[in-house]
């Protein structure tokens, strides 16, 4: 595994998600699919076989009506900052951490579809292409030219819109400077109507995720397993914060995906 | 040295083993993998010059500003425009995927426009003295709406119909002014008004949401009142009684399922933390009466000025509320379904038609809506192909004029509803948008927002041609706010669509439709991320029951069942959730389900 080096000189991109602001509209999910050329569902796809790099789960406090209270939690690749399980299990070196950004990247060209990474990922944030990507006739004209569609039989996941990062880096280089944290945001961040999702460089103390890391109402998913996720969630509700240790996201995905 | 067969085999075997230690086979595998990613079955994104274009979203009256990313002339992504005075940079999931809509497999490609025009002319000629030819406009206030009104003023027995709206189309709800908002089931944080405007105002008001189900809005409200289905008016009456120090409160409280103390507390909060605003899905008289008691009329509910129109247009047919039309009186009905704000159940419309052979023509992108009941369905352009204006949203205090300028050209064979209807009256309709823009410019009020640097300029400083050019490039005209806010009259009680009928013993449950936003609008195939590949939104023909209710009905999780109401039945797939109140069936609102259930209706679920 390639570890992140020199945190003072490289970026360490992360996110903060304010659960108390998320209204579960799903704009992040469709904006992500548009940006990354994720195809519409195959006829046989279900909520267990679909591809949603970012997925908004409805969680609740476990009570029955009328004491039920719900919240919406967007879950994406948590961009593990330390010992990312998917990196260490991949037999093809198809998963790598970019030392310049800290982004855990997936290379579908190298992936042989063994799905070890899906078993290893504690966040169920990886998705397998059960079918070749297909769009309704004519709709393929709307594909983003910066991202190649993936074939059947490979795993894919959120990469913080790496295509956008490359474009921003090229633009910065054309302007004779290095890329900075404010030069790009992933599509989900741009699309979120309530501004519940914010993006930035954790190495910069003034960035939103860095501030969130210090906030008492912040939490990370499965923090105890030591993967150092770079996605910080925030909620003032105790029962929402409790999902950090034992996520109950409503679906038993293990049986089909893992 | 003799070369034997054995040597040959050793050489070949050695070569094969040796080759495995060279990069060649691995390179071959890599190249094969790369090649397989580009085989013909996998689409390749088109390349070309990357451009940016601005327009306004025409999917709903919010009319959010849109920044489109184009490859050549093809839009590949739509995003909001930060700094916009109305939409504040937001775009909902429906708007984000709207560039897919021209490619919907269910879209109508052609329709019998000539035959429909002949049939309409013939049917109008046959209209009896008490019969009428009507246009039902599901998004009033557009320039096309004025064309319909002008046409109907010229057509014999012509009538211009708009959906029921007790306050009329000029009422605006000012969330920026409100400190406390009581919402009777209005989806305030899930698509109501202009989403960006609501979110921008959200931190300034306390939200009390009263509805039976915990909707998205209820989950983010400061207080959710889980009332019994159909008890909204009782709650309004109870609060009104507390505000007026009238008795009784207890009987109404019992109907709602809330305690007297809860109701009193809400009433006191509305009275003492004002200005207050009471909202509901349909501006019902009970909610409006509460607004009157709280002094909201003229403060948080104001009359918005009309967007100027040319003087010559004012000899138009009046706006008639559909509910006020006598039953059985419409012989010819033209329904403009190309721009829909809310889907009315077909039974609301059908009862207004004459019994013997009425003629119904719809202008729609598919047959999924009223096309199921019409003799002629004429295909229309969809956003982002349309060239249409967007009337101000319900939360826009100032009049506004925005144009949805097309990002792609519509295919051949599409029918323009305003040209078709204007043609019946011999009116020209082609330049109506330009004429209205000139009338606005002539009035000289307000400001023009343009995207070059997100700047606003006084309209009087802009030349007419530049104004028109700016509108076509996604600009937005905003009227000056009328300082003398006029109080709105409360119009007489009219029959609301989909009103809850009295419960009967054979229909022991209450069906409540949710996700009404998706009822009539075209949806991108990518919305499968929300409806099929996740359970974030309830998919069509799915229903959610409390496990206790499901046991009583004899259905289980994942089972197929039949939902029966007074209007018919439909097959549904059952999910169980103990967060749904007992006795309630939560169903997703498609056009068919609204025809079946309206907003809420007595129902029964039986195993299929």
Describe, in plain words, how this protein is organized in 3D.
The complex is a heterodimer of chains A (258) and B (608). Chain A is of the alpha+beta class. Helix content of chain A is 20%, strand content 16%. Chain A has helices at 27-35, 85-89, 116-120, 162-174, 187-191, 208-214, 238-241, 254-257; strands spanning 13-18, 55-60, 70-75, 95-97, 104-106, 126-128, 155-157, 197-201, 218-219, 231-234. Mean pLDDT of chain A is 89; it is low at 1-8 and 251-258. By secondary structure, chain B is an alpha/beta fold. Chain B is built from 18 helices and 26 strands. In chain B, helix 8 packs across helix 10 (260-272) and helix 8 (232-243) runs parallel beside helix 11 (285-294). Chain B folds into five domains: 5-37; 50-103, Phosphorylase Kinase, domain 1 (2-Layer Sandwich); 113-167 and 306-380 and 415-443, Rossmann fold (3-Layer(aba) Sandwich), CATH 3.40.50; 172-303, Dimethylsulfoxide Reductase, domain 2; 509-607, Barwin-like endoglucanases. The model of chain B is unreliable at 494-501 (pLDDT under 50). Chains A and B meet through helix 1, strand 2, strand 3 and helix 5 of A and helix 2, strand 3, helix 6, helix 7 and helix 16 of B.
Computed Rg of chain A: 18 Å
Mean pLDDT of chain B: 89
Structural class of the secondary structure composition of chain A? alpha+beta
Q: How many β-strand runs of chain B?
A: 26
CATH topology-level fold name of chain A:
Alpha-Beta Plaits
Proportion of residues in extended strands of chain B: 15-25%
Number of helices of chain A: 8
Biggest sheet details of chain B: 6 strands, parallel
Structural class of chain B: alpha/beta
The level 1 CATH classification of chain A is Alpha Beta
Shape of chain B: globular
CATH architecture term of the largest domain in chain B: 3-Layer(aba) Sandwich
Do you know the CATH architecture of chain A? 2-Layer Sandwich
First-last Cα distance of chain B: 85 Å
Largest interface comes to:
A-B, 68 and 66 residues
Mean pLDDT of chain A: 89
Widest sheet: strand ordering of chain A: 8-1-10-9
Question: Could you give the order of the helices and strands of chain A?
Answer: EHEEHEEHEEHHEHEEHH
Shape estimate of chain A? globular
Q: Which bin fits the share of residues in helices of chain A?
A: 10-25%
Distance between the termini of chain A: 22 Å
